[in-house]
Amino acid sequence: MTTARYYHTASVLTNGKVLVAGGQNSVSAFLASAELYDPSTGRWSVTGNMNFARRLHTASVLINGKVLVTGGIGSGSIFLRSAELYDPSTGLWTNTRNMSSNRQLHTASVLEDGKVLVTGGYNGGSLSSAELYDPSMGTWSTAGYMTNARFYHTASVLTNGRVLVTGGQGNSYLSSAELYNPSTGTWSVTTSMTTPRKYHTASLLTNGKLLVTGGQNSVNSFLSSSELYDSLAGMWIVTGNMNNARLLHTASVLTNGKVLVTGGEGTSSSLSSTELYNPSTGVWSVTANMTNFRKNHTASVLTNGKVLVIGGRDMSSNYLATAELYQP
Fold first, then answer.
1. Does the structural domain 191-328 have CATH classification 2.40.30.170?
2. Which pTM value belongs to this model?
């Protein structure tokens, strides 16, 4: 990339390019810059800057092809409630309405009707509030409150259209999970995970189950465990352990249905190792290492099936500008 960054976002646009936005590349330097990766040429190009420098924000590709960025931490370590839109046709960012709450470490999920559900986060305290962005109106509305305030959690749109929120941190490490029903606008508790976890990943498999991997469940406990949520039964099922305990990793569902986990932080340092989960067997297998050790990076499945891994920090906490491709 043109600049090193971590705590950034990466979004696969409808034209197949990848938009990378924001992040941080030193202790005090928060980034407003954005750039594009073109898989057809393998090259990066600079695009318009965001109106606000930010890290730990979210980026969501809307049905109309624009990208909605929300919240994060801005310059001066200020919690942001601002939101802005990237238009791939012009390469420009425009401000849209602010969220009702300042938040970082939140989630943003594009629902079946095109609205975006933002949940939880942190702004000096953990948040239970949720809100909805309507792209057709450019407005925000309340979406109720989760049972648990949480940040460092995950939110996944299930095949039935509901959103499953898992784990994270509130007053403690959380195993709880809850569901948002877009048709009623209400939250309901579902079965808790078998272990509390934050810094984990959640991946919707092609069979409709949700795979949760790794994370942390105490200050010194890094997890190799994985579990599956069955939305039909509303139950969690333990599945195979990863070969490495890890947190701050990525998990990508490949076109063949397997899940690729990359990097993260292990028990002693950042990892370069990667592994594959096979849903048909519930078993993990080691695959080729990345060129770089990295955590706080992103991984994007391209339209050609390859996985683009971008940025992050290495085992010496150096900020990375490098990118690499995994060929399944």
1. no
2. 0.97
